[in-house]
Specification:
Helix content: 25-40%
Number of domains: 2
Radius of gyration: 26 Å
Number of helices: 10
Strand order of the largest sheet: 1-9-4-2
Order of helices and strands: EHEHHEHEHEEHEHEEHHH
Organism: Eiseniibacteriota bacterium
Pfam family, one: FRG
Strand content: 5-15%
Protein name: FRG domain-containing protein
Number of strands: 9
Distance between the termini: 41 Å
InterPro entries: FRG-dom
């Protein structure tokens, strides 16, 4: 993977994101370890090497069964059940279950936070550089799979009813008579070749996106805000068609963050409100923020 940028300070990162990245939709992912240091860009489930001993069918079956078991336990823990496997898998990912989803964000400062929040060390206890990866391949979004699949709707005249007493019936309420030629009822028009009974039955309708286990390419999924963390972190999930393979080099740009800059970048992010208590708006975030302010940076409250 090419590394065109090595960042030495906070301002250099801002300039790089603003001026040096290609045009188009971009997603960011911060990692405390570099791709070259052995931390490949792949989903969490793809990091379990022993699963590679299984056949594709066995791995696929395992993913589905694990999600089914997880979903069966959701009833006692959530207020709203997921509407499909995409939402169920997003909830599972959020709670730490290994899935074929990868965490990304639309906010480059959030990605920078995850890259520098903790400075890792190598086997000889030397501090290591981190990185922000920019997804530039522009995969389709989940909404692209469903946007054009709604049933067609067209206005038609209502021939089943006639106005009472030759009028609209609204006069006694002080409402002007509606022009029947301009205010017509809407009716569902079956799509060409579709069975009308099937369109009337939502459970039988074929107009839906494939499940995350049936996609033919990587897909960007904006999950519902099941947690304040997802909203605070501008979270985006990348559903990977081949979860045991790393993303290709052409899919991403690597922005290396030099370890010597980590401390200063952490302080700057804290000043700009992109730190623990903002990105984790719960007790865990408050505890992490206090730990950083008081014990790690030896600062003041």
């Amino acid at each position: 993977m090419s590394t065109p940028f090595e960042i030495e300070c906070f301002e250099e990162y801002l300039t790089t994101v603003r001026n040096e990245l290609p045009d188009g939709r971009k997603y960011f992912r911060g990692q405390t370890k570099l791709f070259s240091a052995g931390y490949a860009l792949k989903p969490s489930i793809g990091r379990y090497g022993h699963l590679l001993d299984k056949s594709f069918a066995e791995r696929d079956s395992l993913e589905r069964e694990v999600l089914d078991v997880f979903t069966n336990h959701l009833v006692a823990h959530v207020q709203h059940l997921p509407r499909n496997k995409w939402e169920a898998l997003a909830i599972a990912q959020h709670h730490g279950l290994p899935t074929r989803f990868m965490d990304w964000t639309t906010n480059p400062l959030v990605a920078l936070y995850f890259a520098v929040r903790e400075t890792k060390t190598d086997d000889e206890d030397n501090p290591m550089n981190s990185a922000v990866y920019v997804l530039i391949s522009d995969p389709p979004r989940y909404t692209d799979l469903t946007r054009d699949q709604h049933q067609a709707v067209r206005p038609v005249k209502d021939l089943a009813t006639t106005p009472a007493r030759g009028e609209s019936g609204y006069e006694e309420y002080g409402v002007d008579r509606l022009d029947s030629e301009e205010h017509e009822e809407a009716s569902v028009e079956p799509t060409e070749g579709a069975d009308s009974e099937e369109l009337n039955d939502p459970a039988a309708s074929p107009l839906q996106a494939p499940s995350p286990f049936e996609i033919t390419e990587n897909v960007v999924y904006h999950p519902p805000h099941i947690s304040p963390r997802l909203r605070a972190q501008d979270s985006v999930l990348l559903a990977c068609q081949k979860p045991f393979d790393a993303l290709e080099d052409r899919d991403c740009i690597e922005i290396v963050i030099r370890h010597a800059a980590h401390d200063d970048i952490r302080r700057r992010l804290d000043q700009y409100g992109v730190f623990d208590r903002q990105l984790f708006p719960d007790l865990d975030g408050i505890a992490k923020w206090l730990r950083y302010r008081v014990f790690e940076s030896k600062g003041e409250l």
